[in-house]
Amino acid sequence: MENMRSENHRGAAMEGVKLASEAAANTNRRALRDIKNILGAPHQPQAVSKRGLQEKPAAAGAKSQPGAVGHRPVTRKFAAILQQTQPANAPLAPIGSERQKRNADTAFNAPSDMECSKASDDDLDEMVSRITQLMTNELKEIDMEDTEEEEMPDIDSCDVGNSLAVVEYVDEIYSFYRRTEELSCVSPTYMAHQSDINEKMRGILIDWLIEVHYKLELLGETLFLTVNIIDRYLARENVARKKLQLVGVTAMLLACKYEEVSVPVVEDLILICDRAYSREDILDMERMIVDRLEFNMSVPTPYCFMRRFLKAAGSDKKLELLSFFLIELSLVDYKMLKFQPSMLAAAAIFTAQCTLNGCMSWNKCCELHTKYSEEQLMDCSTMMVELHQGAPRGKLTGVHRKYSTFKYGCAAKSEPAAFLLDARKA
């Protein structure tokens, strides 16, 4: 009889579970799973371990039983298990009683749900702590970067009251220069297409024009625009050797019309050329140049960037003169055409700083405004050091003589920064 009762109880329990599963399937609802609220129930890993639920009811409005473990209601599954484990003639213990707790502890030899939950909580706490630490470190780095940017000096603060400095638009102006500076560049191999002139003749012409520029006391912008017009014209037009000087003086006349307040008259240029050309020759060449360049004369030159970058470097007169000495040496050398105007300006200032300080001193402010790092400038800078070393020697010494005068602070007599050459080899 006892066996029959036990089987009846077991069959009733299994039938109840089956009916519950079928009802859930018919209503398209997922079957309820064990929420592990009874001590001794098999532990299943949880995606998120919820603390503090041991003392809260399982659902809103559910009443906890006074004898339940953790003051929670007993699930239907656990009640069926208790029916299977109890004797047939034994009365069912009230839900949540101490006897039920003892039977549960006897029926399952597994670690308690609280212990497993505690282990899962520890793992989760460790993971959350690690993620929190990583996020904190990242936020600190961002804050440090923001602090560094905030601490950058405002190089335009001293010109707020100067309407000619256009402080309100200066950043946009130099952004435009950076976008359009490629228009002022020429191929560093254009001389290969010239049949009657070569790069040495170009160097002689530029060196001579620097002396002419110095004697006429023209603006710095005029010299750089003159050289740019010459290179852009020679890159597009094949010029005979006897016309090369004519191209040079005409390019200077055009640059003066764009940059100077008082433009030299054509007769002065004829005298400078020792009457090798007539007035008609200069005016005809002027028409040819502007036509070949499509009247595009206003382009960014290294001089445009020099003023801005010197301001960012907080330069004094000594650094300024040495920087211009180095960049004018670069105007004469044909190999320097491979560098963009902004890089030539930044490298000249960087090399001048190294020459005066005896070490590399390219700070964050200079890097921010020039957009070049020390590594990016090293190739151009070392070539400038080599030009500085060879400036007193050879036939093209016009720049060296100019910057050896007291008017230019004897900048050419500074000791070249030879340690940059060793740094590049290393």
UniProtKB/TrEMBL annotation:
InterPro entries in UniProt: Cyclin, Cyclin-like_dom, Cyclin-like_sf, Cyclin_A/B-like, Cyclin_C-dom, Cyclin_N, Cyclins_cyclin-box
Entry keyword set: Cell cycle, Cell division, Cyclin
Cyclin C-terminal domain span: 300-417
SUPFAM superfamilies: Cyclin-like
Key word Cell division present: yes
Renumbered residue ranges of the record's region Disordered: 1-21, 40-70
Superkingdom assignment: Eukaryota
Key word GTP-binding present: no
Biased composition (Basic and acidic residues): 1-12
Entry's Gene Ontology molecular function annotations: cyclin-dependent protein serine/threonine kinase regulator activity
One Pfam family per UniProt: Cyclin_C
Domain Cyclin-like per the UniProt entry, residue ranges: 207-291, 304-386
Biological process annotations from GO: cell division; mitotic cell cycle phase transition; response to gamma radiation
Sequence similarity: Belongs to the cyclin family. Cyclin AB subfamily.
PANTHER family reported for this sequence: CYCLINS
Record's protein name: Cyclin N-terminal domain-containing protein
UniProt source species: Triticum urartu (Red wild einkorn)
Lineage: Eukaryota, Viridiplantae, Streptophyta, Embryophyta, Tracheophyta
Name of the encoding gene: LOC125524413
